[in-house]
Amino acid sequence: ATLKRFFKEATRIRLEPANAKMSPIFVKNVRIQGKVVGLIRRYGRN
């Protein structure tokens, strides 16, 4: 699974990946299964 932002366009929905190396996906129907509300990152050793 990857994190995507969605944008409503005239006749479709654009799913824009958070990773700039990946291409967007265009769909007509979509089901949102969750929402990211926070992010915790660890730097260095655990």
Quick rundown:
With 46 residues, this protein is mostly beta strands. It is 0% helix and 28% strand.
Protein described:
With 46 residues, the chain is an all-beta fold. It has a domain at 1-31. Helix content is 0%, strand content 28%. It has no helices and three strands. The protein has strands at residues 4-8, 13-17, 25-27. Strands 1-2-3 form a three-stranded antiparallel sheet, with no helix packed on it. A hairpin with a 4-residue loop joins β1 (4-8) and β2 (13-17). The radius of gyration is 14 Å and the shape is elongated.
Sketch the topology as an H/E string, one letter per element: EEE
Query: Strand content of the residues, in percent?
Result: 25-35%
Cα-based radius of gyration, to the nearest Å: 14 Å
Report strand order across the widest sheet.
1-2-3
Structural class: mainly beta
Overall residue-averaged pLDDT value? 90
* Molecular shape: elongated
Question: Distance N terminus to C terminus?
Answer: 25 Å
Residues in helix, %: under 10%
Strand tally: 3
| Sheet with the most strands, sense and barrel status | 3 strands, antiparallel
The tally of helices reads: 0
List low-confidence stretches: none
**Regarding quaternary structure, how should these chains be classified?**
single chain
